[in-house]
Give the backbone structure.
Amino acid sequence: MRHFRLDLDNDGILLLTFDSPGRSMNVLSGDVISEMAEIVVRIGSDDDVKGAVITSGKDAFCAGADLEELGGHFDSVRALMGTDPEGAKRKLFETQYGLNRTFRALETCGKPVAAAVNGLALGGGFEIVLACHGRFAASDNPKLKLGLPEAMVGLLPGAGGTQRLPRILGLMNAAPILVQGRQLSASDAAAQGVLHGAVPQAELVETAKQWVKDNPGARQPWDEGKFRFPGGGPYTPGGLPIFAGANAMIRKESFGNYPAVGNILKAVYEGAQMPMDAALRIESRYFCDLLLRPESGNMIRSLFLSKQALEKGEARPKGQKKGTVNKVGVVGAGFMGAGIAYVSAMAGMEVVLIDQDQASADKGRQFAIDEQAKRVKRGKSTREKADSLVNRIDATVDYAKLKDVDLIVEAVFEDSGLKAKITQMSEQTIGHTAVFGSNTSTIPITDLAKASARPENFIGIHFFSPVHKMMLVEIIKGERTSDYAISRAIDFVSRIRKVPIVVKDTRGFYANRCVMRYITEGCNMMSEGVKPALIENAGKIAGMPVGPLALQDEVAIDLAYKVIKQTEADLGNEYQPGPITEIVTTMVEKHGRFGRKNGKGFYVYNGREKHLWPELHQFAGNGILDSQPDVNEVKDRLMYAQAIEAARTMAEGIVHDPREADLGSIFGWGFAPFTGGVISFIDTIGVKTFVNRADDLRRYGEQFEVPQLLRDMAVNGETLYGRFSPHKAD
């Protein structure tokens, strides 16, 4: 065995230690499943084996399926679909059902099997646990979580999770774990009956072994003749309400954009009315249905494979080695600076937090104190850990304390003069290898670097608000930024556990440049007389987290006003105002509506409640249209405006890797995650079809003019991922 160590004790209990070589975490690959099948045969056939206990030789139990291998298998099946679709489907089903077959053989092998879960067990890892007769987990491991997060990447639990968990917990209690990806601690799982016990790590394996010895005739409850679902099945008073309102609830939350959720409920509903063997085949059928949908493939690629690759620093320039950032300086202790200081301290770094006066610097440090107090209150941290974290932040006005920092993040107002002053003050103190990063959101880095005596070490490090919640960081390369500076910035972003994307310098960079197309198109339609409610709802139906007007409220209308004024000043006669210029200017100057932050924006805010401002009709130049456009027309305008701008950034070399463009769109401004991101959106539609539809939308303005790149690709039948593949040279 390569992935399992087998130890048979004097009582006949076979200890299976899952420990795949060369991996930091166990995953369910094809080789692992083959070995498990062999082990199950031995457990059932070897008279010397009285039962078995499964545990892990790593800190975590099992992270689930090998999604990289699954993605490759999916690609081969998709290729076969073109020539033999039925054969491709059969191949896919048999491969997928193999894991269900193995786990089913485990629980029907005729001997007791217990799981001793020493760490995190998610997805297929948790499904191994559910297939065991006895289930125990370490109570003293705070990192231990049990759950089925497959829906988060467009899949469903495909190794019995949709069938076993509802039979253990009941339909109602299983639903949040299956549909929402809710995770359980060992104590919660034991309290709910998922586990037979939660015990200290030191006692875990022996406790599981003792259970096996005490239960020689163990069988799963669903294999007993009179099994009933806890709380009732689908056609009982307890179970019927779950399914009666399920479709309406799914539609309300996802607008039908996430087929995984619907397939999970279908698998549970149909499987609950069948014996387990038939139920598992139903689950595999719905799993395969998802794999043949583009949403699943796109979500797996972007939200797992691409995210993991970029988090590990795959965007690092060739020839540059991974380094370490241990101490950072943050200049500007406002909301953004305070957030950057906090996440840096969370990652274990020493932080020098500077502002113009001590009171402002202390206020920035207070943010960390308040956030840690919340974590302590919720039991996510201890007072000692919280105090240690806060003490890593040195709030000061003294620039001399920057002398030994590895990297600086300047996070002051969007004022070129102020940023230039801070750059020069900082460079009088910092070491020659330190990197200076500006957290500007719109001002070109090349322009800001003119104030630096070391432009090769000057870079953009653009965070999104709120810093401690948003996953994306744009690393912006100016004309003279060195590969060394890019590499150090990636080291910093990776250490604070965020997703770095490297983009070339341009006004608005990548994320802001694209998301402004979303907001601007919303304003364009409002000026044409499209009802604001239709615009907002179309955005959400398309898969965006909020409508374009609500998004502008969130990022602040007065900020947009300042950006417009700065852009006007920078571009002079080249600046071309559009409807958004007049709308934003009027909102700020005439009505004092700054967005959510002052409770007055495109919406009226009353605590958590909000409604569209009734006076928005004033921005419809010729009045509200008598005949409103179809919702699909509005959706396409909102989505295509963003996608075309993203394609322009690829054509211009602002972004060179489609993975970065996709993740930047999802984590930067919430582009419909089910699409896999803005580039996957274009590829899934098909470049030729996309160009044709964009040409049709061209009647609404030049924002729908596609770059020549897409027209050339349409003729050649190319995809953006094919043309710009980061592995193309390999």
About this structure: Residues 33 and 98 are 8 Å apart (CA to CA). The domain at 327-507 is CATH 3.40.50.720 (Rossmann fold). The mean pLDDT is 92.
